[in-house]
Amino acid sequence: MDDTGGDMHFTEGSSSAITPVLRISQLDAFELDTALEQLVWSQFTQCFQHFKPGQLTHFEPELKAFLQLLLWRFTIYSQSATVGQSLLSIRYKNDLSQAQKYQPMSRQQKLWYALCTIGEKWLQERSPDLFTNRPTESVFHKAKYLIGIISGLTKVASLLNFLIFLQKGRFPTLAERFLGIRAVFSRPQGIRQVGFEYMNRELLWHGFAEFLIFLFPLINTRKLKSRLCSWFSPLDGFKISDATLARQCRECALCGKWPTLPHTIGCDHVFCYYCIKSYSISDMYFACPKCALEVQKVEPVKLQLEMTDFNKS
């Protein structure tokens, strides 16, 4: 796909070849123009926010057309370029002229451009109100049918024109092709040195973050924590006795509080019944956080001790 579509002359007196206008630059100019129109309309409607609601609804197509006409007057009519094109150093050129120098849009092309863009948008928004509540056999009904056919054909032609634009790189809209105007650079374009170091770092970090997001749910953090605790606090050779269980019964190994309905899982530590049950149900591989012993059997603690065993420090 060849990126043609740019002008072969920079300014009125230049005759040197230039870099063609990229397709993405032409499409970006349209996006900037659309964003500007939405911004102007939102600012305009905010001026009437304290008025009675619905006052602008009936005249909304005409008001939008009026604001777009103002933008056209100070952009296309005076500079042969929209606001988005000016930001990207692009402007329209009269492609019908055979002159070697740059030729701006003629007055007729500017007027037809306003009619094809502003007039088309106004007709699309106003046509539902123009042809509603009309007799079936009236002229308005026939006009509505005719406008519908023309609108459908125009959409098909616009789609075909856009496919040709993707291939050739010139005339992204049907109006530009019909009027014979195309986008060119308004000043010389230097060679851009593109550095990909920052982009590579961003891609690397995004890929690493996605890998961690995928990996973390697969890690049993509680079991890993208990395993680490067992390594740093080994209890090998520790014999279970009633006195040991009595000392452990003062604190739940999970919540750290006085155990309610103390239960054990086969190790030297005691748990609240609700703590051990909730953890063992949520994690089938649950292990004691103190000694890393996996749950074997949850059973209540049965001790036969004197009260003096609990009073020992």
The spatial strand order of the largest sheet comes to 1-2
Could you describe the largest sheet, including whether it forms a barrel?
2 strands, antiparallel
The dominant shape is elongated
> Which series of helices and strands comes N to C?
HHHHEHHHEHHHEHE
Q: Tell me the β content.
A: under 5%
The secondary structure category is mainly alpha
Low-confidence stretches are 1-18, 234-240
Helix content: 40-55%
- The overall pLDDT average reads 79
Q: What radius of gyration results from the CA coordinates?
A: 38 Å
Q: Give the N-to-C terminal Cα separation.
A: 85 Å
Notes on the structure:
With 313 residues, the protein is mainly α. It contains 11 helices and 4 strands, in the order ααααβαααβαααβαβ. The protein has helices at residues 23-46, 60-74, 76-79, 83-87, 107-130, 139-168, 174-179, 197-215, 221-232, 242-248, 273-282, and strands at residues 90-94, 181-185, 263-264, 299-300. The strands form 2 sheets. The protein has a two-stranded antiparallel sheet with strand order 1-2. It has a two-stranded antiparallel sheet with strand order 3-4. Helix 2 runs antiparallel to helix 5 (107-130). The longest helix is centred in the middle third of the chain and has 30 residues, at 139-168. The radius of gyration is 38 Å and the shape is elongated. The protein starts with 22 loop residues before the first helix and ends in a 13-residue tail after the last strand.
